[in-house]
Amino acid sequence: MRTAPETVENSRDQAKDVRPLTGNEAIARGAWEAGVRVAAAYPGTPSTEIMESLAEYPAEDLHAQWSTNEKVALDVAMGAAFAGKRALASMKHVGLNVAADAFMSQSYIGVNGGLVLAVCDDPGIHSSQNEQDTRIYAQLATVPVLEPSDAQEALDYTKLAFDLSEQFDTMVIVRGTTRLSHTRSPVTVGPRKDVAARPFVENPSKNVMIPAHARRRHAVVIEREEKLKEYLETATINRWETGDASFGVITAGTCYPYVREVLPNASVLKLGASWPLPEGLLRRYCESVERVFVVEELEPVIEKELRALGIKAEGKRFFSRMGEFSPELVRAGFEQAGVLEPRAQHRSWALEPLVRPPVLCAGCPHTSSFMAVRASGARVAGDIGCYTLACLDPLRGLDTTVSMGSSIGNAIGMSKAGDTKPVMATIGDSTFLHAGIPGLIDAVYNQANITVLLLDNHITAMTGGQEHPGTGKTLRGEEAPKVDYEALVRAIGVTWVRTVDSYDLAQMYQTLREGIAHRGVSVIISNRPCVLDPVKIKGPALSIVNEQCNACQSCMNLGCPAMTWGEDTFEGRHKVKIDQSLCIGCTLCAQVCTVDCIKPPSTITTAAVTQ
Amino acid sequence: MNRSNASSSSVESGQLRPTAAAAKAREPMNVLIVGVGGQGVIMVSKALASLAQSKGFEVKQSEVHGMAKRGGTVFSHVRFGPQVWSPTIPKGEADILVALEWAEGLRWLSYLKPDTGIFICDTKRIVPPFACLNRRPGAPLRYSRETPAEVKQHVAEGYAIDATQMAEELGNERAANVVLIGALSTALDFPPEDWEKALSQFVPKKTIAVNLEAFRLGRGWINEARTRVGVATVPAEAVPASMEAGYSVRLEITQQWCKSCDICVKLCPERCLRLNEERVVELAQPEKCTGCRLCELLCPDFAIRVHLDTAVPTQGAQA
What number is the ipTM of this complex? Predict the structure, then answer.
């Protein structure tokens, strides 16, 4: 029978320091224990908390920073590795696309100080624009991927990743998923390792990727992969858990606990590294069982490798290439494969679930920006941020959203293609700094006729309120220089720039009209802080004079979560009421009210208030 | 209702080999906690997880962040026992479902064990903006219509508790989640003192007293409710009946008065107006028009009048 994994034994040992940590916190802890000295990231769900937790360790131990984007973050970490220090970059899966250029060359260069890349995939697309599989990138770059299955392994594997990085002269990926990142489980923590400083190694043939060097390095990379495979043949992170020989399951990462949940006694080969794959071990395992299943989320990386080895493995036939797995889905796959008896379906009550998508917050400055965008009648290229929610009813304010910073380039293309509507790009402050600036320079250079609405809410809002170069604060909360958007935009050649108070709806409408009328590139900065971060904003709530409300629903067009239907009706339509605990007093609803019946509490008598 | 030994579930294990008994003894306790962003779901699950861990259980607590902060659905799976594999609770295997909001409780109902699951739900209704988008006269609120009495038919043991009201009476509406923890505490085998200790770690220091009171209130309420197999009533069960039938909308447009300003076209919530070739407004998609009158109200030149041609009541008596 299977032996209990070491980690579980450890966590029961009362003498040890056991803490409940999320996968992200455990990766941060692992990096700290491994003696990491420089860490950089751009926030992105589900990876954000890795860098936030690292920033909680003493500044004397490590430098941790938010970078402007993932490529810069990886470059920074790489620089520290060049300098002989252990370094970490963390990002979400699509962040690796941004960092890919540096990532691919880094593989050829290798490391001096250990370099670990923590990448969090998002199977099921909880908060992303796709569900790409980072393991494919690892194959492409020929770098190893470790896949922890719980928080304890997240810590252990991160530490191991630094050792492997230095041992094999390679960057190492620690791949998480949303489920690992956001599951809290007991973790045995240890002390920080004192890593001897290595000096910078002046070795241009390794560190300078000109064609002559790169050709030689490619051979080294391929050789390195063979050495890694050899190491993984016997590495303890690959666990062969024996069981009935009628079938066996090869799995890795967060799929492993699902397999164990539904097949507590089956034979399992749990791979600690999902790339590269040790051929001998795989062959021996597959020969030990009659039928081989591969349970892996997203792409059939392991399955394809097995097939390339001529092994008949079954995987994606029963376990989908799409979405996040669960015990239910894994069970269903094994039922379909005839390994498990189908379970009696339990009766279920067919309920129509309430539609409750995420919405912009009460008082969100994006609300007024998108009311104005709508009134402008423009074709709108959107971008990544909370404001992507403006594509939903009732704002329905944007036509496209692709990836970080795409809005401006998309807008240039639309305008050059001759869209009959005025063309606008909407982009948040953090996204603009991340990847919007080259697009804007392109627009100026190519003399595009577009309007760029820069939605400056002074924070990286969607990932929970992180600092960036426009906020004037660092990751650790220290004072920092602050980007002056108007000066920046003028410096790259935009002549028409206006800054508007997002809460002044009339001014927003008017400025957008003027910006659109301007021929060439116009930039409008919609300026108001996020209502949640860095400080939660709460002003006196407004109320509705119920007698005067004509239920026109004009205010409901804002999609404000503080506004809801009251019991009274007018012409059969519900009058509106304002949830006093949610309303922050932004006054946008009062500005769009057709009969001027939304008032601050002081101007109406209590008797006239709906609540 | 000491249910720490939850392995008495009648759910078939479905294993191939006869190791079900051994597997069952290791089955974890599954508590699913759900609600809406900002209600304190994560706090409840953290308190429970920390308590279970202090008792020597292996604990996994899994949630999904991201969009949840913006008024979306929030859920947290807490599993504890001698050994826990999956961080998420399989459908149909939750021992207890604690819901901080009524429609969210209904959404996750299918996760409860059909024969033994306990449903503890606040009757608080948080109506999302999406539920209030239909502008047709008489359109119903798009919110769950199931009542506690109906839900009772579909769960092994169910409690609908007006926790928000109870917390409000204590002077802190935000303690509603702790009232529910009080209720939850009766379903698990941990002493109340330990619950109170765990809670004190997770609520803001200033609010410990009111939260402990809330905890005791919830615990007391459910003990009493259990003796009378109680189901509290849900407030505001009366949803206005649909009056949608039998009315039609007619737009009267005085063409000479329209100066092509386009305001009505751009601000029509249904996008059913347009300027025609003479740049005069016209109703392009009459089937979409709800008769909300917004164009009439916004037109600076009184060029649009909306007629609701039926016996639609002008007063909301039905409400």
Answer: 0.90
